[in-house]
Amino acid sequence: MTTKEKNRPLRVLQLTDPHLMARADGDLLGVRTRESLQAVIAEVLKVHGQPDLILATGDLAQDGSVEAYRVFGESLKSFSCPSVWIAGNHDHIDNLLQVSREYNASDRHVIQGGWQFVMLDSSVPGKVFGALAESELAFLSETPPGPIVDGTCGGGGHTFALRERTDSARRIIGIDRDPDAIAETQRRIGGDERITLVCGNFSDLGGAVKKAGVNSSNEVAGIVLDLGVSSWQLDQPTRGFTFQDAGPLDMRMDQGSDGPTARCIIRDTPIAELARILAEYGDVKRPFRVAQALKDAEADGELGTTSDLAGIVAKVRGTHTRGRKIHPATTVFQALRIAVNDELGQLRALVAHAAERDPAVREADPVIRLRKQGWMLACRLSVVPDASIPEVTARVKSALAETLEGHTGLPVVRTDLDVQVFSLDARTRVH
């Protein structure tokens, strides 16, 4: 928050990954991207009305063409508010910048309704992964006072960058659920009093910052999240996250935990449930065939390493499918990793926390599902008797979408709320 304006409701729409193309019939993974964007815009206007600000956060164009960016700009004319655009790994930075200027959307530091938004470009030309350049980190010196949290510390790359490029009085809190990553980062920083490392999960942000001596997450000035598996884990074959080198089928973020490994998931999970995991968490085609092949191989003693798994999947799905740019086992690894580490469970906790921050909400019980188009979200809310249901519904929908999209980069394509009113005293259902 800036100090010039009092806190007031602000409606911010985040649009990410439209993947537009110069061709009007441009298709990505079976989705016509122009039609998809128009459907999202129509749904936003129908459900939420006009926002105050639009943040377009990357992969605006699949082909990087000027034409695609202009289609995006013209699409946003359905809204009456300003927008700011930032590049993703699929974007052509020069073309995006050119067109964003045409639509007055090139500002990187925006103050709107008393809030300030700093757009950081982490794209690396020609690479899938992201990294914050020095020029991007320099923006953070303008953020309000308070600690900055690296919620997915990993090997400490962003944590160190934040330390180097923020003022000397700024505290940095690094959080990671992997104790090995925390230990390595601690070894590297030594006794730096500016940095506090906490072994925990970003889904419990309030609890993690309290361990670091911060009373509330509301005191945090900024949060950096780099979700999923990190290079720190991929670089160690013994962790089992990659099939580039043969390693055990582990995939646990915390290898000291007693949770199941990927091999345990394959061995102990009924085939129907294993197929559901592959389909829901990885959008794996022919999930029953893949699940059966994995279970057969495990039973026959032929599934001991990550390389074994990759080879089995390749036999079932083929190694060269038209239009495929990644190894067919990639999405299988993704699905198993999500299941092993209960990553959706962690996101559910984060979403529930976002809903329960609303003063009218006593309890939230969300269910989230990942689909090709984005997130499907359903949430049961328990609210106080005097709450205005339409107002609570609108606020919570906005908070849930902002949380889930902001932390994953994937759009929320559907939100269903079941609102129940309970007596505070008797704890009985009113209606």
Description:
- With 431 residues, the chain is α/β, with parallel strands linked by helices.
- The chain folds into four domains: 122 residues, GpdQ, catalytic alpha/beta sandwich domain (Purple Acid Phosphatase, chain A, domain 2), CATH 3.60.21; 96 residues, Vaccinia Virus protein VP39 (Rossmann fold); 110 residues, Putative methyltransferase TM0872, insert domain (DNA polymerase, domain 1), CATH 1.10.150.170; 90 residues, Alpha-Beta Plaits (2-Layer Sandwich).
- The N terminus and C terminus are likely disordered.
- Helix 10 packs across helix 13 and helix 11 packs across helix 12.
- Strand 12 and strand 13 form a beta hairpin.
- It has 15 helices and 14 strands.
- The protein has a four-stranded parallel beta sheet, sandwiched between helices. Strands 1-4-5 form a three-stranded parallel beta sheet. It has a three-stranded mixed beta sheet with strand order 12-13-14.
- The two termini are 38 Å apart.
**CA-to-CA gap between the ends?**
38 Å
Question: What number is the mean pLDDT?
Answer: 77
Q: Which homologous superfamily in CATH is the superfamily of the largest domain?
A: GpdQ, catalytic alpha/beta sandwich domain
Overall form = globular
The CATH class of the largest domain turns out to be Alpha Beta
Biggest sheet strand order reads 10-9-8-11
Order of helices and strands: EEEHEHEHEEHEHEHEHEHHHHHHHEEHE
Measured as a percent range, the helix fraction is: 25-40%
What is the SS-derived class? alpha/beta
